[in-house]
Design brief:
CATH architecture of the largest domain: Orthogonal Bundle
Bound molecules: acetyl coenzyme *A, oxaloacetate ion
CATH topology of the largest domain: Citrate Synthase, domain 1
Largest sheet: 3 strands, antiparallel
Helix content: 40-55%
Structural class: mainly alpha
Number of strands: 3
Length: 448
């Protein structure tokens, strides 16, 4: 932390870094690579996912129900969520994203075997990378672990298709293990608790592996593992424009190595406006629960949301976490699915009141935002609104909410890296217009 004396250096931070909003308008600069109506500037083409949330007709953006397709397949169909005998799908979804086609049984078996074969971490890795100076945020350990796995790969600088696929498979396989080990390393360091280091059980799906390494008694039900599997599938991919995947694209376009690329993507996903929002939703909900006497009273809940929007409560950013999306307007299909499962799990249990509170936030926030800000955009709950709640009901600690997102999204990032390598062809390099006028004459030290 900087001392009081040093702080003087930062006094002008805001003034020096401010650019007038009018200048953005004057030069038609697309802030956040967004057009004036909020639609994204088209920055690339992809075959990997279709994220649909509006239609543009006569140059006008018209809100629409959300739709999400992986390689052309609707997520609803892929998950076959109504089937009583549904199997684990994350591996199938990861295969589809990486290889472009649904696997045959034989291809899937080979893919699962390849994932299984990669779970082991290099000798000494847990002690040096996970248990040493463990920071409180697991996302930072995921990033540094990925970055440093480079050191254990004799071909790390190779850019062949074979190496790219092998690296992606190895990271999809290892991230869940690193995540769980880090969770226990963190508890050992900050809470003086025992370090649990369950080994993975060969042959288990990713969801089962996570639960069996995480739970002290290693026990879980088939329904719990299927629920987690659905969550992994829902978080696996979201087009080229989401912040962490675009980060993947940007780094890949510079022709850097895969480890540096995925570490950067993890850093982006940690952001509270992106994957980190699932963590914020829970913290925000806890604050609302502490400050609102009757959780089922719309007026009370709306009044507290107004405080949040007016930057008087919670983290003072003015954001209601779990609400809003850059693409979705009427609905985020992932949130629809999460909510449905959350309801199934919560009704009739101690969680029901909390679930109803989340539903109230989802229903009330759009009108509160319009009322308090005087402007509004079509806004729905996003994937982060109910995901943390589902994890909580599965007994998954909040420290793991965003890391779980990273484990799942690893397959989407890899698919986009592959596509960028083959089809990108240009270093991503947008322009920044300099608004500083004229040249300043250099002033020597004695004259300043
Ligand atoms: C996995 C994911 O990444 S899903 C998204 C998870 N993130 C969150 O839940 C955080 C809360 N939501 C948000 O911050 C935003 O809605 C985002 C980042 C998801 C999308 O942002 P955008 O589509 O770019 O919306 P944009 O930033 O243009 O917002 C337009 C206006 O609505 C406001 N707004 C948007 N979302 C919210 C919100 N959840 N709460 C309050 N105000 C909001 C913005 O502050 C902005 O107001 P301003 O014009 O006064 O600055
Ligand atoms: O698409 C986005 O901007 C963010 C998002 O929902 C995701 O990455 O899953």
């Amino acid at each position: 932390m900087a001392s009081e004396k040093q702080i003087a250096l930062y006094e002008n931070f805001k003034a020096i870094n401010s650019i007038e909003a009018a200048e953005y308008e004057q030069f038609d600069v697309k802030r956040g690579l967004r057009n004036a109506d909020g639609t994204g500037v088209v920055a690339g083409l992809t075959n990997i996912a279709n994220v649909h949330g509006y239609v543009v007709s006569d140059n006008e953006k018209i809100a629409d129900e959300g739709l999400l397709r992986y390689r052309g397949y609707d997520v609803y169909d892929l998950l076959d969520i109504e089937a009583a005998d549904r199997r684990f799908n994350y591996e199938e979804v990861a295969y589809l994203l990486l290889m472009g086609e649904l696997p045959t049984q034989e291809q899937l078996d080979r893919f699962v075997a390849a994932l299984d074969a990669e779970r082991e971490l290099p000798n000494g890795f847990t002690a040096s990378m996970i248990m040493r100076d463990t920071p409180p945020d697991i996302m930072n350990v995921l990033a540094r672990s990925v970055l440093l796995l480079y050191a254990y790969d004799a071909h790390a600088e190779e850019r062949s298709a074979h190496h790219e696929i092998a690296t992606a498979i190895s990271l999809i396989s290892r991230l869940p293990r690193i995540m769980v080990l880090t969770y226990y390393a963190k508890r050992a360091r900050y809470n003086n608790e025992s370090m649990i280091m369950h080994r993975f059980i060969p042959g288990q799906s990713t969801a089962e592996t996570i639960l069996s390494m995480l739970r002290p008694d290693r026990q879980f039900t088939a329904d719990e593992a299927r629920m987690l599997d659905i969550m992994l599938c829902l978080h696996a991919e979201h087009g080229g424009g989401n912040n962490s995947t675009f980060t993947t694209r940007v780094l890949t376009s510079a022709n850097t190595d895969p480890y540096s690329t995925y570490a950067g993507a993890i850093g982006s996903l940690k952001g509270r406006k992106h994957g980190g929002a699932n963590h914020q939703v829970l913290a925000m909900q806890e604050e609302i629960k502490r400050n609102v006497k009757q959780w089922d009273n719309d007026d009370e809940v709306a009044a507290y949301l107004a405080k949040i929007v007016n930057k008087e409560a919670f983290d003072k950013t003015g954001l209601v976490y779990g609400m809003g999306h850059a693409v979705y307007t009427k609905s985020d299909p992932r949130s629809v699915i999460c909510k449905k499962y959350a309801e199934k799990l919560a009704v009739g249990t101690e969680y029901e009141a909390e679930f109803n509170l989340l539903k109230s936030i989802e229903r009330l926030a759009p009108e509160v935002i319009v009322r308090e800000k005087g402007t509004g955009k079509d806004m729905c709950a996003n994937v982060d609104m109910y995901s943390g709640f589902v994890y909580s009901m599965l007994g998954i600690p909040e420290d793991l909410f965003t890391p779980l997102f990273a484990c799942a999204r690893m397959s989407g990032w890899a698919a986009h890296r592959f596509e960028e390598i083959v089809s990108g062809k240009r270093i991503i390099r947008p322009a920044y217009k300099s608004v500083r006028k004229g040249k300043r004459a250099y002033v020597s030290m004695s004259e300043r």
